[in-house]
Amino acid sequence: MSINLTKGQKISLEKTAGGALQKVVMGLGWDAKKSGGFFGFGAKTQEIDLDASCVLFDDAGHFTDAVWFRQLHSKDGSITHTGDNRTGAGEGDDEQIIVDLSRVPANVKTLVFVVNSFTGQNFSQIENAFCRVVDQSSNREIAKYDLGAGGNHTAMIMAKVYRHNGEWKMNAIGENASGQTFQHLLPAMTPHL
Which domain holds residue 68? Predict the structure, then answer.
């Protein structure tokens, strides 16, 4: 059974999944708010280009690599971004990042998942935004985190997946930020390492 996470909540991914995990998928989904119209007629949906990124940090908290729409694979091959969705259209995950936990280098302690609006649109223009972790082998959702109500921010530090005492854990962070790419968000990520 999937856990609906609250801001700041930490879980053991393996205990929640009921056993060892090899590959997990971090999914990001969102919808653009409809605007205009009279009593729901003639409302228009704009396109919102949100981007999911996974940023890797070592034991000392130093940036080592990132997977995002301009680099779809980590240098070591353990993490893959499935591609950029520029509209938010459709059901379910709009973007996915696949993490082979068994191949993440031993010196990497933390994977931080962020979302940002490359085009600069803010979160007041989106709704139904979420991130979730799925066990790829069973396609079973382990945990889901609602990214909350909109606001004037253009980015969010969604969650981190990290090693602790030999197991992978997840922390729902949910910190609002501003920036068009993960590079702009590095200072906001640092306190969560």
Answer: 3-33+45-192
Residue 38 located in a structural domain: no
Residue type, 127: E
Instruction: Tell me, yes or no, whether 40 lies in a domain.
Output: no
| Residue 163 domain-assigned (yes or no) | yes
pTM: 0.90
Determine which helix (DSSP H) or strand (DSSP E) holds 60, and give its type and residue range: none
Does position 45 have pLDDT exceeding 70, yes or no?
no
Q: What percent of the chain has pLDDT over 90?
A: 69
Question: Which residues lie closer than 8 Å to 137 by C-beta, 6 or more apart?
Answer: 22, 23
Has residue 156 been placed in a domain? yes
The pLDDT of residue 132 is 93
Report the distance separating Cα 182 and Cα 52, nearest Å: 9
Close Cβ partners of 34 (under 8 Å, ≥ 6 residues apart): 43, 44, 45
b/e string for 26-64 if b means 16 or more Cβ within 10 A? bbbbbbbeeeeeeeeeeeeeeebbbbbbbbbbbeeeebb
**Number of domains the chain contains:** 1
Token pair belonging to 113: 């998942």
pLDDT bracket for residue 25 (50, 70, 90):
very high
CB atoms within 10 A of CB 22: 12
